[in-house]
Write a structure and sequence with these properties.
- The structure is a single chain.
- By secondary structure, the protein is mainly α.
- About 70% of the residues lie in helices and about 5% in strands.
- The protein has a two-stranded antiparallel ribbon.
- Helix 1 (about 25-35) packs across helix 3 (about 60-70).
- The longest helix has 30 residues, at about 220-250.
- This is FadR family transcriptional regulator.
- One of its GO terms (molecular function) is DNA binding.
- Keywords: DNA-binding, Transcription, Transcription regulation.
Length: about 260
């Protein structure tokens, strides 16, 4: 398969993203690059490190952006092989619009509502099905959240890992796939929310409560604790979405 040419699409080269943690900005830059270059399906994208350097972001941020593009069917991320374009430029243009709308009201709120229902179900199933090894794996993610301190990127990674682990323990592959897609699309808002002072401490305590319930093998308690976590997270997330929408207005430079 043909490799992507140097990062010089129509209209100029990719430039660094000023707010490196904003996953949607990174995804939009990649979309602009791909739609402007008339690349063929199957084109292999440059290595992760090269893309991250070109955009001026960390590799973890780039991975989240690539995962979101994968959810939309634009990019095929193949572990150990690389990332490949899955659609032609005309399809990418319509998908770019879909990406933009996905992170706005009211669809974002619809995703938040669906995620809440699925996460509560996941916790309940995990508590009923977890073995000792599962509990140990889940505890490692909680400890990683504690060790992250005020490092938002590290905390977000551990937070996501905790939820992915719980979904794995729940043992329902369809549930895992749906949750993975929703989390990828909402990732930019998780990142924003956790940068609000005091949020990390409260979020850690909520996850510890969920873990304790799963460790106790109590589906009822796990369901209740996850519902509490989701209620608190949804209040924060909805407030963040609303404040961004109200402040962004018609600014053409607002790529979130």
């Amino acid at each position: 398969m043909a490799e992507l040419a140097p990062m010089t699409p129509v209209g100029g080269a990719l430039t660094p993203v000023e707010r490196s943690s904003v996953v949607s900005v990174v995804a939009q830059r990649l979309l602009d690059h791909l739609t402007g270059g008339n690349f063929a399906p199957g084109t292999r994208l440059p290595p992760e490190r090269q893309l991250a350097e070109a955009l001026g972001v960390g590799r973890s941020t780039l991975r989240e952006a690539m995962a979101a593009l994968g959810v939309l069917g634009l990019v095929d991320v193949r572990p150990g092989s690389g990332s490949y374009l899955t659609a032609d430029s005309s399809e990418l243009l319509s998908r770019a619009i879909e990406w933009s709308l996905t992170l706005r009201q009211p669809r974002t709120r619809d995703l938040i509502e669906l995620r809440e229902f699925l996460e509560v179900m996941t916790a309940q199933l995990a508590a009923a099905r977890a073995d000792d090894d599962d509990i140990g794996a889940l505890e490692r993610h909680v400890e990683a959240m504690r060790q992250a301190g005020d490092d938002v990127d590290a905390f977000v990674a551990a937070d996501l890992a905790f939820h992915f682990e719980a979904a794995r323990i729940a043992g329902n592959t369809v549930l895992q796939d749906i949750l993975s897609s929703i989390r990828s699309l909402l990732q930019v808002w998780f990142d924003r929310t956790l940068r609000v002072p005091g949020t990390i401490g409260a979020t850690l305590a909520e996850h510890e409560a969920v873990f304790d319930a799963i460790r106790a093998r109590s589906p009822e308690a796990a369901q209740r604790r996850m519902q509490e976590l989701m209620d608190a997270a949804d209040v924060r997330l909805t407030a963040t979405v609303g404040s961004v929408d109200e402040s962004s207005g018609p600014d053409p430079d607002d790529s979130d």
